[in-house]
Design goal:
The chain is mainly α and 253 residues long. It is built from 9 helices and 8 strands. The strands form 3 sheets. The chain has a 3-stranded mixed sheet, with no helix packed on it. It has a 3-stranded mixed sheet with strand order 5-2-6. Strands 7-8 form a two-stranded antiparallel ribbon. It holds the Pfam family FtsX.
């Protein structure tokens, strides 16, 4: 008879596949890889798509260590399993790294790799290590595409300013007529500034709506889960700032 181990938690995705509710799944037996039987003791929320750690169930580590043929899990030279630590809020990360750095070397002769901890939030972007330190990772792609995006934005702003300048030359007669009937320079500046801001914010409105409509198709095409969070104050400030700067510079130029 198979030994039934505790399958600590399964995801809501697994529950939806086999049961009508999380309550119905509690206490049920799952057989994994046709070799081990587990009892469900909890149901967890699905892991977000943008997480670098994707899993549908959690099992006790002791079950792996005590399994036949898995003696490598107790080998100090094995790095196939990640270890997560919950530290105190004011923990000294540098001091902790200094203490644990030679632990594996002390238990495994000839092993040159060292231990250190890394914040979970940095795992996805900073995943390339050299000499026991974070060297680079996916953050390189983020920086590269950020530079490309800024470059394209600058080109768009320059084109907008050029078009506005070319159009202002055609409005020279209007400026002359308005000056002849008593319009002052500040009044003309305010007029052109308001017109430029209206065009800039209209373009912003159209672009945000296009992004909102096309983002789901883009995520399906790339397999990503990007989203436009306009509740983030930093994002809102950045978007509005670009619109204001573009509208203002078109008048200045």
């Amino acid at each position: 008879m198979d030994v039934v181990c505790c399958l600590r938690q399964v995801s809501e995705k697994v529950v939806r596949q086999f049961f009508d509710s999380p309550e119905e799944a509690m206490g049920k037996i799952f057989r994994i890889d046709n070799s081990k039987s587990y009892k469900v003791t909890g149901v967890m929320q699905d892991v977000p798509r943008n997480s670098s750690m994707q899993f549908d169930y959690v099992t006790p580590l002791d079950d792996w260590i005590n399994s036949p043929g898995d003696d490598w899990l107790e080998d100090w030279g094995s790095n196939a399993r990640r270890t997560f630590l919950l530290l105190k809020p004011n923990a000294d990360i540098a001091a902790l790294n200094q203490k644990i750095r030679p632990v594996v070397q002390d238990h495994h002769d000839g092993y040159k790799k060292e231990l250190f901890v890394q914040p979970v939030g940095d795992m996805y972007l900073y995943d390339d290590f050299r000499g026991g330190e974070v060297a680079t990772g996916r953050i390189t792609n983020v920086r590269l595409f950020s530079v490309v995006a800024i470059f394209m934005l600058v080109i768009a702003c320059i084109n907008f300013m050029n078009l506005t300048t070319a159009r202002s030359a055609k409005r020279a007669k209007e400026v002359g007529v308005r000056k002849s009937i008593g319009a002052s320079k500040p009044e003309l500046i305010r007029q052109f500034l308001v017109e430029s801001m209206l065009v800039s914010f209209l373009a912003l409105f159209l672009s945000l709506n296009l992004v909102r409509m096309l983002l789901p198709q883009f995520n399906d095409l790339t397999g990503k889960s990007m989203r436009m969070d306009l509740t983030d104050p930093v994002m809102v400030a950045l978007v509005l700032g670009v619109a204001v700067v573009a509208g203002f510079f078109s008048v200045v130029v």
